[in-house]
Amino acid sequence: MAEKKKNSKRDSSFGLIIYKKTAGDVVFDALNIVFFTVFMILCVFPFYYLFINTISNNDMVNRGMVTFFPRGFHLNNYLALLNVNGLGRSFTVTIMRTIIGTALMVGVSGFAGYIVTKQHMWKRKIWYRMIIITMYFNAGLIPWYLNMMMLGLTNSFMAYIIPGVVAPYNIILVKTYVESISPELEESALLDGATTMQVFTHIIWPLSKPILATIAIFGAVGNWNSFQDSLLLMNNDAGLYTLQHRLYIYLNQTTDLGSTMDSAMADRIASGTLSNRIIKYTISMVTVIPILLVYPFMQRYFVKGIMLGAVKG
Fold first, then answer.
1. What was the pLDDT predicted at 313?
2. Does this model's pTM top 0.90?
3. Domain boundary among 78, 93, 109
4. What are the contacts of 42-51 at 24+ separation with CB within 8 A?
5. How far is CA 307 from the centre of its chain?
6. What is the domain range of residue 85?
């Protein structure tokens, strides 16, 4: 304590105590910077490596000459993907699934999270426990598939939407957040004659934007990256394959990709100007770039939404 006082002084202008860093503090900060810089590079470099290989000269890429910097810049590989059969359709299906599925999940999670905070809700504890128990117990893959088949959700776009509308974990997050909002706001609105729905739409919903943005990120990333439901449920309708499912097919093919492309693109592969590896790199980047572009804009809401309501006094 004495050493801490010795290394600190008071700023007379603002009345603040300025702590002077010791040699140990400087070393600790330096190690932190080095560690997280290396960690960031390890996380970013795989995406960077894919990207520079998709915009570099294809012949150099095939010979393994592109490692750290792009060589022979061009965007022809991305333009060539327009000729891959079914890719545009899969891209559209994935975008529609992400938008519709995320919007419905956020709306239902927001309202359900608010409703289960109301003490006067009929059988509130039972309904809440029924939602939570699904996080820990499920029937398994085969009963799930049979259930989806009996509901007529195989080879149907609604199979991407309906199962994800109720998200127990997101409901818990919203419930915890709503409980941190001052109850006086809702009480005053009820005294003025507002209904429960009006309180939710005019007070709770606007104040819950941070947590709603947080669960929106969860939902968008989950819908964008999901392919198992497409793999299992869309056996007879290739037009409903998601982008990740299409990528999964391409990445696991051991034969020529010519069967999935038109004649012009197949000729380019045969001539050596476009290889299977370059196609896989480019498709991988196309599936990753959209979600990478969205996340930075939502990050501030993500951090705020997770922290607010997590600790209650």
1. 40
2. no
3. 78
4. 47/285, 47/288, 47/292, 50/281, 50/284, 50/285, 50/288, 51/285
5. 18
6. 80-307
